[in-house]
Amino acid sequence: MSDELTLAIIKPDAFGAGHAGDIISHLEEEGFELRAARVAELSREQAEAFYAVHREKPFFSSLVQFMTSGPCLPMALERENAVSHLRDVIGATDPEEADPGTVRAEYAQSVERNAIHAADSPDNAERELAFFFPRTELV
Ligand code: CMP
Asked: Which fold has domain 3-133?
């Protein structure tokens, strides 16, 4: 099976706490190659658009506030089965339920401030990659 690209975001909690380097190392040890990355400060409009699928959820406005509270680090990552493997490596949304050794078990503070986002399907990976990276930036 050929390699696949997926989108991850090191969220403002983990980025602000200085964990970006450790999280990238963890992902590289899992075989992911960094294809694009940039520090971003999301506007409210951008955060609302990125998480539009959660618009009706009770945590939506709090999530948008958190994601705009400081810089974050969107990344394009390549690997065989990148989408599903990254979901395994980051662990459950709620760090209390995340398996030991996963990124969220190690760095997440709560179900909202959970250190990292990863696209949950190949279709969403494509949409989310396009949200942050023009095709020409993906090397
Ligand atoms: P993420 O994987 O980025 O996808 C949606 C985000 O919403 C999720 O990580 C959490 O940051 C947040 N989230 C999901 N469920 C809850 C919840 N029950 N309460 C607060 N925030 C949540």
From this structure: Alpha-Beta Plaits (3.30.70)
88: left (phi over 0), alpha (psi -120 to 50) or beta: alpha
pLDDT of 138 over the 80 cut? no
What are residue 9's DSSP bridge partners?
74, 117
CA-nearest residue for atom 22, ligand 1, is 112
pLDDT band at 2 (very low <50, low <70, confident <90, very high): confident
Pocket of ligand 1 (CB under 6 A): 54, 59, 63, 93, 111-112, 114, 117
Measured in Å, residue 25 CA sits from the centre of ligand 1 at: 24
Q: How far apart are CA 125 and CA 69, in angstroms?
A: 24
Closest-lying ligand 1 atom to the alpha carbon of residue 116? 3
- For the cut 70, the answer to whether the pLDDT of residue 1 exceeds it is no
- Is the per-residue pLDDT at 98 higher than 80? yes
Catalytic residues: 117
Delimit the domains of the chain by residue range. 3-133
